[in-house]
Amino acid sequence: MTFRKKNIVAIDDEESVLINLEKKLNKFIECNFYGFKNSDEALNFIRENHVDLILLDLLMPEKSGFEVLSEIKDDENLKRIPVIILTVKADAEAIDEAFERGADDYILKSSYENELLARVKRILRTKEMEEELLNYERDKVALQLGGGIAHHFNQPLTVLTMGFEIIRTLLETQHPEALKTIDKYLKMCEDSAERISKIVDKLSSLKKYSIMKYVGDMHIFDLSLDNED
């Protein structure tokens, strides 16, 4: 796997907190640190860039950390980014609310020295493993879909190819009986073309799918037209 520096965004209205976070993280973790005092600027950056982790202060003057957290977790494109809450005190009610809104962890600002690096590393590693699994599943689905298309297209395409070859040969002979045979194979070609068209329609409107055993341990998408709901 190609190494990539992790992109970490911190949102806190106190400049000193951002400076302290950057120093500690850059000392022990290969990362690009982006600190923001303004939450809207931070959200714009997060939407436009690949971000691996967000450190979010709960108590901010213009927009609370709870609101920012909800915006992140309600956004389809951002909700998988892990968020660690930064809080001054262990307020059980506030921490519970943060978890309910989708926070992944929290750190007391007074515990930076002992907990910051360990928790950040754990969250980053978890996210990395999730991405690896997601990529594996995507590759697996792509392979199954490609195999399904190849399998289900193969038979009608073979019929089309064979039909055209036979028609070409018959046209060259100019035999009277050839017209009947040509009509027969044109119908076969027409049926095969219609079958391919239906498979394409099924693919374009696919909302759920099933897989079928193919060769050995390999499975492919079942695009059979005889098992439609």
Layout of helices and strands, plus pairs?
Blueprint: E1 6-11, H1 15-28, E2 31-36, H2 39-48, E3 53-57, H3 65-73, E4 83-87, H4 92-100, E5 105-108, H5 112-173, H6 178-204, E6 211-213, E7 219-221
Helix pairs in contact: 1-5, 5-6
Pfam families: Response_reg
Domain Response regulatory: 7-124
Protein name: histidine kinase
Q: Which key phrases capture this entry?
A:
229 residues; alpha/beta; Rossmann fold; five-stranded parallel beta sheet; 6 helices; 57% helix; CheY-like_superfamily
Task: Write a short abstract of this structure.
The protein has helices spanning 15-28, 39-48, 65-73, 92-100, 112-173, 178-204; strands at residues 6-11, 31-36, 53-57, 83-87, 105-108, 211-213, 219-221. It is an alpha/beta fold.
- The CATH topology of the largest domain is Rossmann fold
Regarding quaternary structure, what we see is: single chain
Q: Which term fits the overall shape?
A: rod-shaped
CATH homologous superfamily assignment of the largest domain? Response regulator
* Termini Cα gap: 42 Å
Sketch the major β-sheet.
5 strands, parallel
Estimate nothing, just give the exact number of structural domains: 2
Helix and strand composition category: alpha/beta
CATH architecture of the largest domain: 3-Layer(aba) Sandwich
Number of helices: 6
The radius of gyration over CA amounts to: 29 Å
- The helical percent reads 55-70%
Task: Report the CATH C-level class of the largest domain.
Answer: Alpha Beta
Secondary-structure element order, N to C: EHEHEHEHEHHEE
Q: Using DSSP, what is the number of strands?
A: 7
On the 0-100 scale, what is the average pLDDT? 77
Which residue ranges are poorly predicted, with pLDDT under 50 across at least 5 consecutive positions?
Answer: none
Main sheet: which strands, in order across?
A: 2-1-3-4-5
Strand content: 5-15%
Pfam families: Response_reg (PF00072)
Keywords: Phosphoprotein
EC number: 2.7.13.3
Organism: Deferribacter autotrophicus
